[in-house]
Amino acid sequence: MPDLQPDIATLMRRIEALEMDAAHRGRMIEDLNATIMAQWKEIDGLKRQLRQLTEQLAELEAPRDGAPEPPPPHY
């Protein structure tokens, strides 16, 4: 019956490859997390800006004296 156990050198190469793969994936996760955080901050800023613009538009569209705006002349 042949010896089915891999030798120590083969096991060490496999462990090294797994360690390198784990380190690579860890770095990739950190990079993705940094990208997501940057996008989240940008989205928050854009939401704030949209809210301000919506409020400004509502103020411009509201009649100043409280009376309803008369219909346009073509009605």
TrEMBL record:
Q: Which InterPro entries match?
A: SlyX (IPR007236)
Q: Which domain of life is it from?
A: Bacteria
The family line of this record is:
Belongs to the SlyX family.
**PANTHER family this protein is in?**
PROTEIN SLYX (PTHR36508)
Q: What is this protein called?
A: Protein SlyX homolog
Gene name in the database record = slyX
